[in-house]
């Protein structure tokens, strides 16, 4: 069955922002006298919604501050890093152009908050490709709960089983699969056994684009 829509995750898919997220968390926590490593960030918070990230660190370090304070500080640090260093990942623009040219409906469904979404879309100059933008901040539950993907499908007016999800994290992959969507993983570590349950694994967006062109899995995207 050919799919009608493609829903992108943002961090780690459109932009290699995970290093910015890790750096922001490490720097902000250091300001509170706490030492976190990049590995800690990957293990504890990767793919999580910002309010969840702040709560996780407050509990992990037993910080006696409102989690909202930590949340705001991390968000501001991430936005600053994206504005200064943000670039699209290899293959992003080509894939978006291919999908748009084929008339495919395209959405963004991310754990990030709107200020970070705006910073990414503006820094990368790709906002024109997305007819729907959804933040898990507006959902009761963040990923791995599927709600942000289901909301995106609803706004696209496309059935969940007619959507393709592109993810890079285990948390996001679980969300896409739980939504009943074909979920492709483009992770940093393609050999991670946890991605075996994905609908497909690819080393890059370029490889994924070639797969879509060859298979015609998404309506309108095919060899011409």
- The CATH class name of the largest domain reads Alpha Beta
Q: What composes the largest sheet? A: 6 strands, parallel
User: Could you report the average pLDDT, rounded to the nearest whole number?
Assistant: 95
Fill in the CATH topology of the largest domain. Answer: Rossmann fold
In short:
The protein is 46% helix and 11% strand. The protein is α/β, with parallel strands linked by helices.
3D structure, described in words:
There is one protein chain. The chain is an alpha/beta fold. It folds into 2 domains: 5-16 and 88-215, 3-Layer(aba) Sandwich (Rossmann fold), CATH 3.40.50.1000; 18-85, DNA polymerase, domain 1 (Orthogonal Bundle). 46% of the residues lie in helices and 11% in strands. A 6-stranded parallel sheet has the order 3-2-1-4-5-6, sandwiched between helices. It is globular, with a radius of gyration of 17 Å.
Features:
224 residues, alpha/beta, Rossmann fold, DNA polymerase, domain 1, 2 domains, 6-stranded parallel sheet, 9 helices, 46% helix, globular, Hexitol phosphatase HxpB
SSE layout and pairings?
Elements: E1 5-8, H1 18-31, H2 38-44, H3 50-60, H4 67-85, H5 92-101, E2 105-110, H6 114-124, E3 132-135, H7 147-156, E4 163-167, H8 170-178, E5 182-185, E6 200-201, H9 205-215
Parallel strand pairs: 1-2, 1-4, 2-3, 4-5, 5-6
């Amino acid at each position: 069955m050919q799919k009608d829509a493609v829903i992108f995750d943002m961090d780690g898919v459109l932009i290699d922002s995970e290093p910015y997220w890790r750096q922001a968390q490490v720097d902000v926590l250091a300001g509170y006298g706490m030492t976190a490593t990049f590995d800690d960030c990957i293990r504890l918070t990767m793919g999580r919604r910002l309010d969840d990230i702040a709560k996780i660190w407050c509990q992990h370090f037993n910080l006696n501050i409102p989690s909202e304070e930590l949340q705001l500080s991390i968000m501001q640090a991430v936005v600053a890093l994206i504005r200064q260093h943000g670039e699209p990942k290899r293959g992003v623009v080509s894939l978006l152009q291919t999908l748009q040219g084929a008339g495919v409906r395209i959405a963004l469904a991310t754990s990030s908050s709107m200020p970070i979404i705006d910073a990414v879309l503006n820094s990368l100059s790709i906002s024109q490709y997305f007819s729907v933008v959804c933040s898990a901040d507006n959902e009761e539950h963040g990923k791995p709960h599927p709600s942000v993907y289901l909301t995106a499908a609803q706004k696209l007016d496309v059935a969940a089983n007619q959507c393709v999800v592109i993810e890079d994290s285990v948390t996001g992959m679980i969300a896409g699969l739980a939504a009943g969507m074909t979920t492709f993983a483009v992770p940093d570590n393609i050999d991670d056994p946890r991605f075996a349950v994905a609908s497909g694994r690819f080393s890059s967006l370029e490889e994924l684009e070639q797969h879509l062109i060859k298979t015609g899995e998404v309506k309108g995207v095919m060899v011409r």
